[in-house]
Design brief:
By secondary structure, this protein is mostly beta strands. The chain has one domain. It contains no helices and 27 strands. A seven-stranded parallel sheet has the order 1-27-23-20-17-9-6, with no helix packed on it. A seven-stranded parallel sheet has the order 2-7-10-18-21-25-24, with no helix packed on it. A six-stranded parallel sheet has the order 3-8-11-19-22-26, with no helix packed on it.
Length: 480
């Protein structure tokens, strides 16, 4: 894992991005400005525009006046300018990432949300014949694990969360727990689902396992006491080298700034977040499967939360954030399990999804201050955070001991990449700056960590000049 105080410099692949007809490995369709070359998409204040990446019709035209319609398929949108006004929201969903290509500028003054969705908690009773479906991921993100997957008998464990592409590499499902009914409801508390993992853990931003069940519970799969919580997900980075956990190619520089080689990131393309695992069921029996199983005998676990989605914005002009502008690619929350009395949630809680993947590319720079660094606050303009730890039992039913069992693990952070032509940080309006940040963030050891969470990775389509130090002016761009 990189030091939070370091400045990571990456090369774009396979070639420089910043011409109107260039293409990236992410999107092989050139930027063309949309219908007529002057298609401006404006999400107005007070409007929530739901964008489905399967297919969505988008009204727009010069100045945002809806004179034509663009039929987007597969999550791809071509615009001249994109404006999300303050109080407006663009909410995306669907199986494909969101890819927006602008020949002009992008202004984020409201909210652009590609987060995973929260799983629905189990509020029904006596429905053991019904599965609890995992929450959908954000666009392109992994779905949460399903709970109560066996609907004609006892379920041994919660389902695992999914990764982009449906593979089961998200959080693992919690083990169902059984104990004789005469020991009381708490004794059969099962394992909770594990959280989804995408990026490497960053301090408190970490994927967590599900909690184990009550010490008197026996695991339905292992036969061991207590029923085990699901492990946190594996995620896509599996080579054991945290220094290449990105998409792109990183230059290796000598002490004098000369290029000596490259490190290719482990991600092959734009990616997305991972779903959390489902919680296990609570089974009132002395053995597994429950010999007296009925629709109402076992308390169902909660499903897993969805992984954060994927977003790529490419712009020839600036990408500008207004005072309230926010991009979210957070993981969805796992669900709580079935109750026997009010809010006791005897079934295991589902794990939450991981954050997603946000890639912002601009040939002109990214401004987090709306042109006024002196008054802009320090906050997270971009978020790709995992969903929370899910504690089932609440104070309403007593929490002295039971709250430590059957919890769903929190999701891990996602990946944020910022691609700009120059690594010049400015705390004053500067048209040549690659990134403009608030004055209050300028003195931080890691300025980018003051405007986004988790820490972004900075990608540059240039090589660094011999000048030393972070923020050094860069040499001219060159294709490879």
């Amino acid at each position: 894992m990189r030091s939070p105080s370091s400045l990571t410099i990456l090369f774009s692949i396979p070639c420089l991005l910043f011409t109107a007809v260039a293409a990236t490995a992410q999107d092989d369709i050139p930027c063309n400005g949309g219908p007529g070359g002057d298609f401006d998409w404006v999400v107005a204040a007070g409007q929530t525009f739901f964008f489905d990446t399967n297919a969505t019709s988008i009204p727009g035209g010069p100045g945002g006046v809806p004179t034509t319609v663009q039929d987007s398929v597969g999550g791809r949108v071509q615009v001249r300018n994109l404006v999300i006004e303050e109080g407006g929201e663009l909410r995306a969903q669907g199986p494909y990432p969101v890819r927006i290509c602008a020949t002009g500028t992008v202004e984020i003054r409201g909210t652009l949300d590609v987060s995973g969705f929260n799983a629905k908690s189990v509020f029904t009773l006596n429905t053991g014949n019904q599965m609890e479906i995992g929450a959908s991921g954000g666009p392109g993100g992994g779905q949460g694990g399903d709970a109560n997957t066996v609907t004609s008998g006892s379920t041994p464990c919660g389902g695992s969360g999914r990764s982009p592409g449906e593979a089961l590499r998200g959080g693992m499902g919690g083990e169902s727990g059984y104990a004789p009914a005469n020991l009381g409801k708490d004794a059969r508390r099962p394992g909770g689902g594990g959280g989804g993992r995408f990026a490497a853990d960053q301090g408190s931003l970490a994927a967590g396992p599900g909690s184990s069940g009550h010490p008197l519970s026996t695991g339905a799969k292992s036969g061991l006491m207590p029923a085990a919580g699901g492990a946190a997900g594996i995620g896509p980075f599996v080579d054991g080298d945290p220094s290449n956990d990105f998409f792109g190619v990183e230059p290796i520089l000598r002490a004098n700034g000369e290029l000596s080689g490259f490190v290719r990131g482990e991600l092959a393309s734009l990616w997305a977040g991972y779903g959390g695992g489902a919680g296990g069921n609570a089974i009132p029996a002395s053995s597994f499967p429950n010999p007296n199983w009925t629709f109402g005998s076992d308390e169902k676990g909660g499903a897993g939360g969805g992984g954060g989605g994927a977003l790529q914005i490419r712009a020839l002009g600036k990408i500008v954030f207004g005072p309230q502008g926010t991009i979210r690619a957070n993981g969805g929350a796992g669900a709580t399990g079935e109750n026997t009395l009010f809010l006791d949630h005897i079934g295991g809680s589902g794990g939450s999804g991981s954050g997603g993947h946000v890639v912002l590319e601009s040939a002109s720079g990214i401004d987090f201050t709306d042109g006024d660094p002196l008054v802009a606050p320090v906050r997270n303009w971009i978020e790709s955070l995992g969903g929370p730890k899910i504690v089932g039992t609440t104070g309403a039913s007593g929490c002295a001991n039971a709250c430590q069992y059957s919890n769903g693990g929190r999701g891990g952070p996602g990946v944020i990449q910022l691609h700009v032509p120059l690594a010049i940080f400015s705390v004053a309006p500067d048209p040549s700056a690659g990134i403009v940040i608030p004055l209050a963030a300028g003195a931080a050891a890691n300025p980018l960590g003051e405007v986004a969470a988790p820490d972004p990775i900075l990608l540059l389509p240039t090589s660094r000049s011999p000048a030393s130090g972070d923020g050094a002016k860069l040499a001219e761009s060159r294709e490879r």
